[in-house]
Specification:
about 230 residues, 7 helices, two-stranded parallel sheet, mainly alpha, glycoprotein
Length: about 230
Amino acid sequence: RNFYYITILRDPVSRYLSEWRHVQRGATWKASLHVCDGRSPTSEELPSCYTGDDWSGCSLQEFMDCPYNLANNRQVRMLSDLSLVGCYNLSVMPEEQRNKVLLDSAKENLKQMAFFGLTEFQRKTQYLFEKTFKMNFISPFTQYNSTRASSVELDEQTQQRIKALNFLDVELYDYAKDLFLQRYQYMRQKEHQEARRKRQEQRKILRARHAHLREQSENGSSTDYIGNVERW
């Protein structure tokens, strides 16, 4: 079988707020094993942000204040090869080096995927998917600008803090957006070139057909004239 890996990235601030709202309603990640290099992290390597069954009702401030919150830079972590940095053991290398290795790994893995899209560009994502895999969706994607995350009112200070907590995701998203739009423009240009080539081929066929008809007409006229001369 041929397996194709794809993913969808989202604006880091919106994604972070969406996860907070999800957790606030009682969602947990307890079923996630976080297995890396054949084992799950210890409670010392990955402490919990809450002591009860879930973290329902937590405020955004509480959500941001937990230093072990896996919502921070989640997209980079999920796209990178954690074994390169010792999985969840933060003592393997300095933090700055760890962040660089994770970000570089996430960018490379994203670039090598068969396809990735962006939540904020639904129509372009659909177009690229259809062109990449040569298949069409039954109905067009709908671009929803109103989400649970968009309903959260943030002051500038809070927004900047969320970006700081997700600085790796912010850099990854900027990279992904640039690469995504380059691929979109390339595919559009390729489509236009193919359409132009087909139009040129059609015009060429039409010109050849018209030339053939003219030739037949001229030959027919000469034959009729010679026949009439013989009868005369």
